[in-house]
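Appendix B, Record 12. Input sequence as logged:
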Amino acid sequence: MNEEFARQLREAAEAHRPDRARMLARVQRGMAGPAVRHRAWPLTRSGTGVAFAGLAAVGVLATGGLAVAAIVAGSSPSATVPAPATPSPTAGSSQPASDRPTRVGPPPVTTPESSRPAPRATSPSPTASPSPAIGDSQKGALWSAGSVDPHSNVYWTQSNLVLKTTQPLTSLTVEMRFAQTGGVQSTGSWQTLPGGDFTVSVQEAGGTLVYRWVLKPGLTVPAGSHEFAAQFNHAAGVRSAAGDGYRVDGQGPGGSASVRGGFVPAR
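Logged structural output:
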């Protein structure tokens, strides 16, 4: 009998849904008002009644305890859960580009205009100009042009002279002069006019290699275009013709004339 009663009490306690608002109001009134005297149970009741009353009191106390615990839990402030701390990046961990510190270098050093050194004036390198003019020349019945043959190389050079005359020449001297730039040594010469009509000589004087063609007496050079050439070896390298030159002296029915110039480098 007692076990059945206890089971019913447990089921009733489990099924009970206390009215939180009313219970809280009652607790507050009880705390504010005078103490209420409860009626004592008569001691003359039977033992069964006493046991039932005891079990009921236990159930009420248990239920009330649960209700008070629920009220206290509902009225207490909610606990604050601390946010997890964000671990600081270590040397081996990656970090977003937006959170990385930006390295700022030192500002560029600018030199005031007043403290900057003035640019040095560069003077053009002196160019050794031959005594005769460079290129072609014309005077009276004579016209001439000198050039370095394009077949020349770093060891050997040929210089050409084109001579034009508008009238026959009864006297003609052609002279080519080449500066001794190192290792300059004659290897020959030629002309388009007959070789037997001229006395040809090559000699070195005053640091210059001189080629000379002299028309033999009693002979005549016909009007037209004629060519003379001088050949020589020299030190290895591209040789400058700046110190070289020629001169032509001729005489014909119209009188004497002279032309001179230099040798234009090969293109």
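The radius of gyration is 65 Å.
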